[in-house]
Amino acid sequence: MRKLILYIAASANGKIADANGGVEWLEQIPNPDQLDYGYADFLKTVDTTIMGYSTYAQLISWDIEFPYIGLDNYVVTRKETPEDNGHVIFVKSDLETKIEELKSMTSDKDIWLEGGGSTNARMLEAGLVDEVRLFVMPIFLQSGIDLTAEMKENVMLGKPKVVVHSSGVVEMIYSLN
């Protein structure tokens, strides 16, 4: 069975984006060794992405080509007529069933839960996340979007594997299922 992996960066105080949904603050983190923190290798292990609409809207607002062409991309939304770039499938209801369906599909690749905070919380609370790869950035953000915005229940993680990168970024890998 495929794994649903939450692979995400957060500030030291648990923010995944600033108050406007931006992630430009990530560029403030000194990275003299130009580390990608395993991102390129991780991307080779997934063939599907799941993201909330705000994450998707932020992504398509950048002046770049959609970065996940060739992957199956699902966007969680409550909007009636969301803006479509032709590379995503919108999921408006029964997300949990859709995730279970995707996880049971035959594939040697996993599913990337990309955020945002509400989608993260929903998937964690439903017990659908198999692994969390959390990159804690050495910065406190004044305000912003929480890693698990709107979470209503506690979710235990257990003991992580920890890697401290030369840039001060702390990578924590939790196995949940």
UniProtKB/TrEMBL annotation:
Q: Where is the signal peptide?
A: none
Q: Which PANTHER family match?
A: 2,5-DIAMINO-6-RIBOSYLAMINO-4(3H)-PYRIMIDINONE 5'-PHOSPHATE REDUCTASE (PTHR38011:SF11), DIHYDROFOLATE REDUCTASE FAMILY PROTEIN (AFU_ORTHOLOGUE AFUA_8G06820) (PTHR38011)
What GO molecular function terms would the record report? Answer: 5-amino-6-(5-phosphoribosylamino)uracil reductase activity
Q: Which Pfam families match?
A: RibD_C
Q: Which InterPro entries match?
A: DHFR-like_dom_sf, RibDG_C, Riboflavin_Biosynth_HTPR
Its name, as the record gives it, is Dihydrofolate reductase
Organism of origin: Phaeocystidibacter marisrubri
Q: Where is the Bacterial bifunctional deaminase-reductase C-terminal domain?
A: 83-141
One BP annotation, GO = riboflavin biosynthetic process
